[in-house]
Amino acid sequence: MSVERALVLAKPDAVCIRQAPITAVETLLKSINGGKLLCFEHHVVPTELAEQHYEEHKGKGFFPKLLNFICNPNGVIVMVFEGVNAVKTIREVFGPTFVEKAIQVECLRGKFGSCGGINCFHSSDSAESGARETKLWTDYFKIELNEEKAKKDFDEYKAKYDGKYKSDVSKVREIVKKIRADSEEYVNAMKELSDCDDFLIKQLLASIILN
């Protein structure tokens, strides 16, 4: 049995679902053998860090989407967990990457995720990536790995948000389905006017919605 460290990110969607990070921390600390929370900090992710984090996906078609989402102004909550076989345990607690699969089993992505890869949580996929990602993020933000400080930071977050907001995302999922259907209709209409690819057209739609 090996003691491992794993980076966990509550992504921008989880930051908006206030109960999600609380449930994640409490569930993981109960599930990981000898589990420890070593940091719990909110940060807005710059493109430079996002590119390093997702370096293995550089050049792939979905790479811009990864950067765009993780760099959302809502930011992320950076967490590092330590424990025996921590990586495997965390991934089991979070469940499948895609929400449509996650909702078929009992897991946190199935509980809180909205759709597709908008799944609330990132976790290291191996002990090696756990060590690399932990160093990358803690070095970048100069985060001190300290169990006592992490507990204090988490307790403050929990005191502020626990039980004050709903945790049922079913209504959000229904709205997301409608938005995605409408967005496909918009893309098809724009393609009659342009040779822009789908990603650029959807970025334009996002700008229109936010205007």
Automatic annotation (TrEMBL):
EC code(s) of this entry: 2.7.4.6
Residue ranges constituting the Nucleoside diphosphate kinase-like domain according to the UniProt record: 3-147
Keywords, ordered alphabetically: Kinase, Transferase
One GO MF term: nucleoside diphosphate kinase activity
Gene3D superfamilies, sorted: Nucleoside diphosphate kinase-like domain
Swiss-Prot/TrEMBL cofactor(s): Mg(2+)
Organism annotation: Entamoeba dispar (strain ATCC PRA-260 / SAW760)
CDD domains noted in UniProt: NDPk_I
PANTHER family in the cross-refs: NUCLEOSIDE DIPHOSPHATE KINASE
List of residues binding ATP: 11, 62, 91, 97, 109, 119
Lineage top rank: taxon: Eukaryota
GO biological process, one term: GTP biosynthetic process
InterPro entries noted in UniProt: NDK-like_dom, NDK-like_dom_sf, Nucleoside_diP_kinase
Family: Belongs to the NDK family.
Catalytic site: 122
Name assigned to this protein: nucleoside-diphosphate kinase
